[in-house]
Amino acid sequence: ERYRDQNAGDKMNPFAEQEAWEDHQIGKATLKFGSKDRKQISDDYKFVFEDQIEFIQDGMMDGVNFEDDSSVEFEKSMAESAFEKLQDDRKTLPVYPYRDALLQAVHDHQVLVIVGETGSGKTTQIPQYLHEGGYTKRGKIGCTQPRRVAAMSVAARVSQEMGVKLGHEVLGRNNHSLVCQVGYSIRFEDCTSDKTVLKYMTDGMLLREFLGEPDLSSYSVVMVDEAHERTLSTDILFGLVKDIARFRPDLKLLISSATLDAEKFSDYFDSAPIFKIPGRRFPVEINYTKAPEADYLDAAIVTALQIHVTQPCDGDILIFFTGQEEIETAEEILKHRTRGLGTKIAELIICPIYANLPTELQAKIFEPTPESARKVVLATNIAETSLTIDGIKYVIDPGFCKMKSYNPRTGMESLLVHPISKASANQRAGRSGRTGPGKCFRLYTAYNYYNDLEDNTVPEIQRTNLANVVLSLKSLGIHDLLNFDFMDPPPSEALLKALELLFALSALNKLGELTKVGRKMAEFPLDPMLSKMIVASEKYKCSDEVISIAAMLSIGSSIFYRPKDKQVHADNARMIFHTGNVGDHIALLKVYNSWRETNFSTQWCYENYIQVRSMKRARDIRDQLEGLLERVEIELTSNFNDLEAIKKAITSGYFPHSARMQKNGSYRTVKHPQTVYIHPSSGLAQALPRWVVYHELVLTSKEYMRQRKSNVGGVPLRLLRKAIALANVNQVENVLLKARSTKTNTGIEELVPDSGVLANGMGDL
Ligand code: CDP
Ligand code: MG
């Protein structure tokens, strides 16, 4: 963006962008890496790089033909022998020589801890071995993944390897019905059938399965995979599977991990034996920057381009970013800069990968790179251990990831960009040495690495809001949470906070037992405040509207589309839904209902700058919520003209998130008072109503904001000092007053001493 501005008047000069890029290199004095000989390497890069630029400018690279052996014939025969090749590939994986020993170990022991480096074949192969070994004759094999993308892509891979269709039953080439033995299940997306015997799923989904099947009787094997990630759901699963293994001696339990801290897992599972799969790893050269990088996004892009221009096209690049937004920004900048160089450099195939990336685009990262091109994968933490991408030779590690943290005192949860741990840094570096010697460029100093990074990442259970988990455990009949068999117990303060919230939401009674409302809430795979909103909609006779709102809030990606060249149009289109300052929840409802009225028209989405894909997802989620309503016996009733009723339902879930305007246009939260601001993307950003309830608070750190400035077309997050209130309900005074007099938020002080704050806050109204 910066360069575009600089060269705005220079459109006639075809080299303008290129020169700007070069200036930038010199201006930045390129990146200098670590120790002496590494510096040498880096300087070499620089020279080659600058030579190359001249080379390009002289036009000497014109007409260079890269070898191209991917003829049509070749591809055709490839497709035909693809299955055989996959079978051969399977045999080259590090786990393969241990197949029989592994089956023997599973036979001999009920619980087994498996350790092997990422890419050794644990996730894709072990469930297949067990299937071949006959374990699916008496039940399914379930394999949990902390990430949705991993569950989907691994299931797709395994179905290819087994030569079966994924998920639902279909007819094959000769009209034989193909058995769909492999499926996956992630929240709001069940891609399994009654033929499924290998089921990949997120850890959260297995947790939910306990609600319907407390002894997991339909499973013969449960493999808790990627155990080292220690997500909240995985940690809770540990406790639950350990418990059922005691009274189900036929159930086999595998705990698999990519790191070497297996002793801890073994100790927890009563000294379960550890099965090690020796890894194959090539040496990885680690490079550090000499000084900390002010703008890691830019530094990462420059490094990637340097590698691309100076190194032969025999290895792909993997860059770790913190999230979708950063990845999209990087993708745009990279495209822009490589476009400036045209055909003068080898093709750079840019492959983003993050959780919300549409499924059809995810497959792209696994496609082999053509010989004359190079792939650059822009990934979140997902590529650290959950996904293995072959052919990576260079890893660029800015040293950050997005991490949830939770302050049990204030009850505030935030997703912040945080330095990674040493363990993560080493995992990341290791991604470059899988198929040959690799190089890792750490965009931080060696001093940072040795002195500032924590050894290991704190398990999620110790830094998150537990309300959801507490509700699930309570509905599983586990009452004594303080004595639950946690591998690492959460802070007791966080447990109490969760109990307090659930009590305030009427999900628990004074004795901490699940109420009728709580039982209904537990059926919804949603945050308790969101489930409460749905359950409350019964009373206000607006369940139809409320599940639409809940679905729209659960999409996880943006609904509004804002192309750069049409921002004004897009903003105008968006504001129509906000007419009357109805608040973001109601605006979301209006979007959904308008779309529904057009019979879910794609054209309508285009005309209104709405993301079709997000809307389709909302519709899917809504369908499922409708099914769940039926299950908890709440009638589907519509009350669209009574916005008050809808707001009341929202408020009965979200009253703990209410805030009152202060004189200067900022807001003060009612519980645990602190100053917050309305997010500029909210329809209420200008309206500033006296009272709002918000969906969530988003904290942005200073570093993050600094980096934002260099992004293309970024929203002015930097204008916001601290917190941002998103999704509001306008004019809620009387709703809040109502809420105050209802049971939902009285008597909390009986549970924990500190809860007086909420009562006071509400009293203030
Ligand atoms: O679980 P682990 O990290 O040990 O390895 P894996 O996920 O089973 O991956 C083994 C191999 O399968 C990788 O090296 C990839 O070559 C391949 N794979 C793939 O091509 N596509 C996927 N979606 C997953 C794995
Ligand atoms: Mg794996």
UniProtKB/TrEMBL annotation:
<keyword id="KW-0347">Helicase</keyword>
<keyword id="KW-0747">Spliceosome</keyword>
<keyword id="KW-0067">ATP-binding</keyword>
<dbReference type="GO" id="GO:0008380">
    <property type="term" value="P:RNA splicing"/>
</dbReference>
<keyword id="KW-0508">mRNA splicing</keyword>
<feature type="domain" description="Helicase ATP-binding">
    <location>
        <begin position="103"/>
        <end position="278"/>
    </location>
</feature>
<protein>
    <recommendedName>
        <fullName>RNA helicase</fullName>
        <ecNumber>3.6.4.13</ecNumber>
    </recommendedName>
</protein>
<dbReference type="GO" id="GO:0003724">
    <property type="term" value="F:RNA helicase activity"/>
</dbReference>
<dbReference type="GO" id="GO:0003723">
    <property type="term" value="F:RNA binding"/>
</dbReference>
<dbReference type="GO" id="GO:0006397">
    <property type="term" value="P:mRNA processing"/>
</dbReference>
<dbReference type="GO" id="GO:0071013">
    <property type="term" value="C:catalytic step 2 spliceosome"/>
</dbReference>
<keyword id="KW-0378">Hydrolase</keyword>
<dbReference type="GO" id="GO:0016787">
    <property type="term" value="F:hydrolase activity"/>
</dbReference>
<dbReference type="GO" id="GO:0005524">
    <property type="term" value="F:ATP binding"/>
</dbReference>
<comment type="similarity">
    <text>Belongs to the DEAD box helicase family. DEAH subfamily. PRP2 sub-subfamily.</text>
</comment>
<keyword id="KW-0547">Nucleotide-binding</keyword>
<keyword id="KW-0507">mRNA processing</keyword>
<feature type="domain" description="Helicase C-terminal">
    <location>
        <begin position="304"/>
        <end position="477"/>
    </location>
</feature>
